[in-house]
Description:
This protein is α/β, with parallel strands linked by helices. It has helices at 23-33, 50-66, 82-88, 99-104, 106-114, 122-126, 128-136, 140-148, 166-175, 188-206; strands at residues 14-19, 37-42, 70-74, 117-120, 153-158, 180-184.
Amino acid sequence: MKTIPIIEERADNLVLVGCSILHKETDFLIKKNNWHIETHYLNSALHNYLNRLSTELNAALDEEHEKGKETVVFYGSCHPSMEGLLDEHKTCRTHGQNCIVMLLGYEYFMQELSKGAYFLLEDWALTWEPMITACFGDNIGVIREIFHSSHKYMLALRTPCSNDFTQAAEKAAAFIDLPLHWLDVDLQELETVMADAIQEKRDSLAK
């Protein structure tokens, strides 16, 4: 069992800026641990549009800086220039390749990925068809070919914060013609990742 780092209770004028894909889970963990941190979430579909991602993340970090806030970023390696962007804003991010790694842990992520999983979270399921067609176009044959080239099944991830998104997940899987599997996930891995990032930021401010 992982040990969650103990973070000293104090107000740091700190804002978590990042993807909204796990906003319910991050809000829950912030409240559970009494972390004195605000949130500023960006649209979870931005990972499909690299130019928009960098533009909107830069704008959000600038906005919080202008308010006199310190920031920590809730993103993985979702943009090729992510580390340079963090350096420019003198901030840090949650460690992990992507949000799925942060939720599952690297070993379990790689285990399912090697078997052909496409990971589905509630937020993506609820906006699936318009999100996918906006990115890949309306040709269902082409869309399915793209997914079938590297995936054998869709793995929907349920967390303690999830609503019942069974119907949306079934429609998403049917849309790309892949079988649907389910996995119930606790928040222990994500809690550790968030705590580590917050502590890293606080340590940098103390120097």
